[in-house]
From TrEMBL:
InterPro entries: MeTrfase_RsmB-F_NOP2_cat (IPR049560), MeTrfase_RsmB-F_NOP2_dom (IPR001678), NusB-like_sf (IPR035926), NusB_RsmB_TIM44 (IPR006027), RCMT (IPR023267), RsmB/NOL1/NOP2-like_CS (IPR018314), SAM-dependent_MTases_sf (IPR029063). One of its GO terms (molecular function) is RNA methyltransferase activity. The active site is at 386 (nucleophile). Residues 163-447 form the SAM-dependent MTase RsmB/NOP-type domain. Belongs to the class I-like SAM-binding methyltransferase superfamily. RsmB/NOP family. One of its GO terms (biological process) is regulation of DNA-templated transcription. This is Methyltransferase. It comes from the Bacteria. May act as RNA methyltransferase.
Length: 448
């Protein structure tokens, strides 16, 4: 019997493992190419993203049920074991169906021998539910509370520790943050200012107006490929997390004396924030310069900002050659670990390593320093990263502010009506508190 949904999920997991592909890029294209729609598309999406997101927990259970270490398991068989184990532990699919469907896929591709091994492992997995396996395999919550929560909610321990340090808690707040980060997120849209309102967009797509962004709309989880929506195809709206919208808007809300018609996005790819900023500055007759180092990402910016007052420059944001003080407002949406958007990039948590942080913070400091050179005296810079890691957030901002003399503004005032923003002066958003990605934003003013 054909099983297009599970086959698509399995082949996407294989692409992630073999080619370091991104599931959220591979799967939608595969579904379109194979014309998989409706329930099959929804099932494929759930199984793919769920299996990729929970990989660490799944691997621990698989190894506990196997007669060999994972390093000795055939890669394609391991992909199938992850898919089957996810169905057994984290879906309502009957156990016999989860096992049989997975074994059938393996038998058709790898033969009866490996299919027998997969069958034996999955039957052992099915002997307990997820809670029982967590009780058996997770670190002791009394001696290692962070490790226990990391295992329970399928996060590498170092990432859970970074969350704990940013939250200032190893208890309930950390549990809630990891729990929210382990859930499949809703899709957020941003209406293009001057073209369509959030109310109009919500009515067109059947979504809900976002609680905080005046341009945001939330779609139901599992609502399908947002790229198929007419407003997105016609560039009346883009896919953008509400937290990203709020951080871009914070730059525009900071008070400014004097000129205010020349804005800069120093790290513009793939173009979501640039499109929002360009639409807003364009309403006032201004322009946006969008800088992007990678040519293919610069092309994405051009496409996304088509029809807006934007000039795209393909260059390194640290070495633009722009005249000092040439801009009124500058956005530094710096390259980062992406730890704040793990729920949207299911495999990313298992790829990132602690060593990545140090390399990125050097780049982040250089970009923020250059932004403060390019903004005019009295102008403002928004430093934004999609990460709560303290080294990437308050560490970078404090260091650059000390060396440049830049004034840190109370960024909380630039997020009106958003609750639970902490002690400031920066803002750290969280999925469990705000329903957004874990975006960080600090707004600084260059001294006059």
């Amino acid at each position: 019997m054909e099983d297009p949904a599970r086959l698509a999920a399995l082949e996407t997991l294989r692409a992630v493992r073999q080619r370091d592909a991104y599931a959220n890029l591979v799967l939608p294209q595969m579904l379109r190419d194979r014309r998989i729609t409706g329930r099959d598309a929804a099932l494929a999406t759930k199984l793919t993203y769920g299996s990729a997101r929970a990989q660490g927990l799944l691997d621990a259970v698989i190894e506990a049920c196997s007669d060999r270490p994972l390093s000795e398991v055939d890669g394609s068989a391991l992909d199938a074991l992850r898919l089957g184990t996810y169905q057994l532990l984290r879906t309502r699919i009957p156990s016999h169906a989860a096992v049989a469907s997975t074994v059938d896929l393996v038998r058709a591709e790898l033969g009866s021998g490996i299919a027998g091994f997969v069958n034996a492992v999955l039957r052992r997995v099915a002997e307990q539910d997820e809670a029982a396996w967590v009780d058996e395999l997770a670190p002791d919550p009394d001696t290692d509370p962070v490790g226990n929560l990391a295992f329970t909610h399928a996060h590498p321990r170092w990432i859970a520790q970074a969350f704990a340090e940013a939250l200032g808690s190893r208890g309930e707040p950390l549990k809630l943050a990891l729990e929210a980060d382990d859930a499949r997120p809703a899709v957020h849209l941003v209406a293009r200012p001057g073209e369509v309102s959030a109310d109009e967009l919500a009515a067109i797509v059947g979504g809900d107006v976002a609680p905080y962004s005046p341009y945001g709309v939330h779609l139901e989880t599992g609502a399908g490929d947002p790229g198929d929506l007419e407003p997105v195809r016609e560039r009346l709206a883009n896919v953008q997390d509400e937290g990203s919208q709020l951080c871009a808007l914070a730059l525009t809300r900071a008070s400014l004396e004097g000129t205010d018609d020349r804005w800069l996005d120093l790290c513009a790819g793939p173009g979501g924030k640039a499109a929002l900023l360009a639409a807003l500055v364009g309403l006032e007759g201004g322009e946006l310069i969008a800088v992007e180092k990678a040519p293919h990402r610069a092309e994405l910016v051009r496409k996304l900002t088509s029809g807006l007052p934007v000039t795209v420059e393909v260059t390194d944001g640290r070495e633009t050659g722009f005249v000092e003080g040439a801009f009124d407002r500058v956005l530094v949406d710096a390259p980062c670990t992406g730890l704040g958007a793990l729920r949207r990039r299911p495999e990313a948590r298992w790829r990132r390593q602690p060593a990545d942080v140090g390399q990125l913070t050097t780049l982040q400091r250089e970009l923020l320093t250059e932004a403060l050179r390019l903004v005019r005296p009295g102008g403002v810079v928004a430093y934004v990263v999609c990460s709560p890691h303290l080294s990437e957030t308050v560490g970078v901002v404090a260091d650059v502010a000390r060396r440049t003399g830049a004034e840190q503004l109370d960024t909380r005032t630039l997020f009106p009506e958003v609750p639970d923003l902490g002690d400031g002066p920066h803002v750290q958003l969280w999925p469990h508190l705000h329903g957004t990605d874990a975006m960080f934003c600090a707004v600084l003013r260059r001294p006059v």
